[in-house]
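This part of the workshop introduces the protein records we will be handling. As an example, a complete record with its sequence and its C-alpha cells follows.
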Amino acid sequence: MIRISLVKLAPLGLCIAVTAGCASSPVAPFNQMEKSNLTAFHLQNYEPPAAAQGAAAPQGQQLLSAMPPEIQQWIAAGAQGLQQLLPPGLVPQNLLQPQQQAAQPVENVPRFYGFRILGQTQVMDSELRAKLGEIFGDPDNFETPRTPCLYPELGFAFGSAPGAPTYDFLVSFSCKQVQAKNFQWPHPQTGMTSETVKQLSEVVSKLLPG
C-alpha cells in the first residue's frame, strides 16, 4: 500500500511542479503578444483647453496650474524618469525644457482613440514583446485605481498580422492606470502597482529611447 501511494504521489508532485512553473504565464490575450504584430504609440496625454480653442497658450506656472493635478504631480516627480513621454511643449520652460510653447492642436493630426499621436513604432524585438506580455498579462501587477483619471502617454495595438483585428489599450503613467478600448480587460483591476510602473518604465525606455 505504501509503495502504491508513493507511485501515485510522484506524478502528483510533478504535476504540482509543472503547474507552479506555468502560473506566471500571461493570461489571454496577452499570451499572444510575444508573437504578435505590435505597435506602440507615444500619445499627447493632455492638450491645454486654451490652445484647443485657438487662443494664446498660457505660459510658465499659469500653464502648469491649468493642468490636471495628476499630471502636475507626475511632472513634479520627474515623470517617473521617462521625460521622453512628456508631450512636446507641455511643460513650462523653467521646469524641464528650454524655450517651449504649448503644442498647438491640429484638427487633422493622427490620433489614437482621441489622443494625438506624437510618434509610433513597430516593436520588432520579440523579447520586448514578451516582456510587455508578462507585465500586462499578470493580474498581480494591477490594483484598485487610486484615481479615476486617464491621461495616457502610451497606446498599444497588437494582432496576429498586419491588417488583422487588433487588441487596443491605453496606458497612463500620470494616473497609473490602463484602459482596454475594444476588448474586455482580463484582470479585476486596472490600476498599475508601483512595481508595475517601474518594470514598464524600463521597457518603454527601450521602445522610446531618449
The first strand starts at residue 37 and ends at 43.
